[in-house]
C-alpha cells in the first residue's frame, strides 16, 4: 500500500513550515523539512571551506551527511550533524544564502533525492519544500502550493526576527527574499513552479488557521 503524502511547496516565508507542522500534528504523520537538507549541506560546505564553485565536492558532502532530526519542544526540530546541534546555525544569513546557491546544483539535488523519498513511511508524510510535488513525490494525492506577496513574506520574516531579537531592515529582507525567489524560480534544476495538479493558495492576508482548514478539508475529500 502506498503511503499517503501531502506536499507543501512555495516560496520562502509563505507559511509552509507552520502549515506543514500543523498538518502533520493534526494527522499524526511525519514531516520532511527538505529545506533543512540544503541548509545542512551549505553549513558543511562553509565549515569545510569548500568553494561554492566546486559542485562535485558539494554533491559528495550532500551524499555523506551524518544527519539526524530530533523532535524538540513546541514543534521545533533539532538538527544534528555528526552529533552537533546546528539548528540555529543553519538559519543564519550566510547559511541561507549558501543554501539557495547549493540548491541550484543538479548533482546536489540528485544526492539528496533518495534520502527525501525514504522519509515516506506510514502512517503518512507532510513534505515541505520547493519541488516536493513536482520532482520528489510526483504521485502525492494532495499537492499544495502556498504563496504570498513578497511584501507579506518579508513582513512576516521581519516580525519573526524581531521576536528573536535580531535586527534587520524590512527593505533588506525584501531584497534578499526577491533575490532567492528569482534563483529558485529561474534555475534549470527543479525550479520553483506549482505542480500542474496543485491546489494553489495565496496566504496574503489570510490567517494560518484558515489555510490549515482549507487543506484539511481537501485532505479529507481525497481520502
Ligand atoms: O525552505 P528553506 O528556506 O529552509 O530552504 C532553504 C533553501 O533550500 C531555499 O532557499 C531553496 O533554494 C532551497 N530548497 C530547494 N528545494 C527544496 C527545499 C529548499 O531548492 N525542496
Automatic annotation (TrEMBL):
Entry keywords, A to Z: ATP-binding, Cytoplasm, Kinase, Nucleotide-binding, Transferase
Species per Swiss-Prot/TrEMBL record: Congregibacter brevis
Family according to the record: Belongs to the cytidylate kinase family. Type 1 subfamily.
Catalytic activities: dCMP + ATP = dCDP + ADP; CMP + ATP = CDP + ADP
PANTHER family from the UniProt entry: CYTIDYLATE KINASE, CYTIDYLATE KINASE/PANTOATE-BETA-ALANINE LIGASE
One GO MF term: kinase activity
Entry EC no(s): 2.7.4.25
HAMAP family from the UniProt entry: Cytidyl_kinase_type1
Ranges annotated as spanning the membrane: none
Lineage summary: Bacteria, Pseudomonadati, Pseudomonadota, Gammaproteobacteria, Cellvibrionales
InterPro entries noted in UniProt: Cytidylate_kin (IPR003136), Cytidylate_kinase_dom (IPR011994), P-loop_NTPase (IPR027417)
Subcellular location field: Cytoplasm
A Pfam entry, by short name: Cytidylate_kin
Protein name listed in UniProt: Cytidylate kinase
Residue span(s) of domain Cytidylate kinase: 6-219
Binding site for ATP: 10-18
Keyword Nuclease: no
